[in-house]
Amino acid sequence: MLDEATSHLDIESERSIQDSLHEFFESVTAIVIAHRLTTIMEMDRIVVMEGGRIVEEGSFPDLMRLPGGRFRELWKKQKI
């Protein structure tokens, strides 16, 4: 389980660590907790929680296709 493992890193360092972790965790299950959504873009499955409940789940492309979806809304706010 990784809880905000790269939250205090610059973008370049974060990308380097993400690439290494992605390779390391390729054949195992990893739980990654993140507020910076770019951290989880490449994950196989993303679970969006709100108020302690699962409100959406799916891959990044699946969640981005949901009109009015919570993940999509959060993504747009972070990309501004």
What does this 3D model show about the protein?
There is one protein chain. This protein is about 35% helix and about 20% strand. It has about 80 residues and is α+β, with helices and mostly antiparallel strands. One of its GO terms (molecular function) is ABC-type oligopeptide transporter activity. InterPro entries: P-loop_NTPase (IPR027417), Type_1_exporter (IPR039421). This is ABC transporter domain-containing protein.
List the helices and strands and how they pair.
Elements: E1 2-3, H1 11-24, E2 32-33, E3 46-50, E4 53-58, H2 60-64, H3 70-79
Parallel strand pairs: 1-2
Antiparallel strand pairs: 3-4
Short note summarizing the structure:
The protein is an alpha+beta fold and 80 residues long. The protein has three helices and four strands, in the order βαβββαα.
Number of strands: 4
Contiguous low-pLDDT stretches (5 residues minimum) are none
- How large is the share of residues in beta strands? 15-25%
What would the average pLDDT be, to the nearest integer?
A: 81
Please report the number of helical segments: 3
